[in-house]
């Protein structure tokens, strides 16, 4: 079974449980903190990937370390340790976040630009794309890319809106080449 299918199944179960208990925001916040721990702490990943450490030891570590999180989040981690799927955690968080955002009418956008966007530019992009995508909110993650000569490239989900000068020049070049044939 592919990683994304497995991650989606766990995320759907957690999303349904969070919806049922009206705890989506709490679970989402906890998942993000735990994801940050996994991403920034190499020792934690080595611990969970070490075959010499028993599953019981890993589960006890989860109980001790994440004692303050909700039962739903802790039980997810314990289940992942049991099934030897702790490495799927990041994918599960991404799927969960996507479902939560979809339910609330939120889209997340990576906006590539040559410099930091101003607040007005962010608002303009948000207005245009919330209408275009029929969403309530657009969360913008501005990524500085010095290779962009000018313009913007926006990635929302699996859609890319490329208005960079480099892309426009490439399109112009293609038109000129096909026109001269």
Automatic annotation (TrEMBL):
User: Do the record's keywords include Membrane?
Assistant: yes
Q: Which GO terms describe its cellular component?
A: plasma membrane; proton-transporting ATP synthase complex
State the membrane topology: Peripheral membrane protein
Family annotation (Pfam families): OSCP
Q: Does the keyword Transmembrane apply?
A: no
Instruction: Please provide, alphabetically and separated by semicolons, the GO molecular function terms listed in this UniProt record.
Output: proton-transporting ATP synthase activity, rotational mechanism
> Which locations, inside or outside the cell, does it occupy?
Cell membrane; Membrane
Q: Which domain of life is it from?
A: Bacteria
Alphabetically sorted, this entry's keywords are: ATP synthesis, Cell membrane, CF(1), Hydrogen ion transport, Ion transport, Membrane, Transport
Its main subcellular localisation, reduced to a broad class, is membrane
The family line of this record is:
Belongs to the ATPase delta chain family.
Function text: F(1)F(0) ATP synthase produces ATP from ADP in the presence of a proton or sodium gradient. F-type ATPases consist of two structural domains, F(1) containing the extramembraneous catalytic core and F(0) containing the membrane proton channel, linked together by a central stalk and a peripheral stalk. During catalysis, ATP synthesis in the catalytic domain of F(1) is coupled via a rotary mechanism of the central stalk subunits to proton translocation.
Identify the NCBIfam families for this entry: ATP_synt_delta (TIGR01145), PRK05758.2-4 (NF004403)
Matches recorded under PANTHER family: ATP SYNTHASE DELTA CHAIN (PTHR11910)
**What protein name is recorded for this chain?**
ATP synthase subunit delta
Name of the gene this protein is made from: atpH
